[in-house]
Specification:
Elements: H1 6-19, E1 24-35, H2 36-41, E2 47-59, E3 62-78, E4 81-97, E5 104-122, E6 125-143, E7 148-160, E8 163-175
Antiparallel strand pairs: 1-2, 1-8, 2-3, 3-4, 4-5, 5-6, 6-7, 7-8
Amino acid sequence: MKRLSPTLVASLAGALSLQAEAPRYGVQGLVNIPLADLRNYVDSKPGPGIGIHGTFDLGDGHMVRPRLDYTIYPEAAFATVKQTATLASLGADHLYFLTGRPEGLYITGGLAAMRWSFETNTAGLKASGHTIKLGFAAGVGYQWNTTLGTEARIVHSSIASDFQADALQVGVTVRF
């Protein structure tokens, strides 16, 4: 296999840095509507979430967005059993704007490390568990102006072979 010369690597890195704009940072407010097995675990209760992100415009409609999100699903009660679920997610998304510049309609896809925490309380006996799984996301969004955007995406995380923690995530993003 032929190795790339240091001059070629430096030229490619320089070209990318000239095309990329300065990063912008922001926050997002999220509502997570549980799907699949997660819906049954939390009794279909939506979970509010918050997050922070950075956006790196790579030009030609391509953008990379590293993000950190936190979601808590409200307590679900089934007779004497109470259950809660929380999610902390660290990942990155690729956004592609159909206009070729960072405005208007875009599609997105991403990967994340997801730390799930589950707690069950039955008649005073608590059981809890934590796991870190790979998560996938895909969706669409609309960037209304340089500051405000909205987005809807499906988030998938497989906790076990018989437990899928999927959600429809709807959010508002604000960039500074």
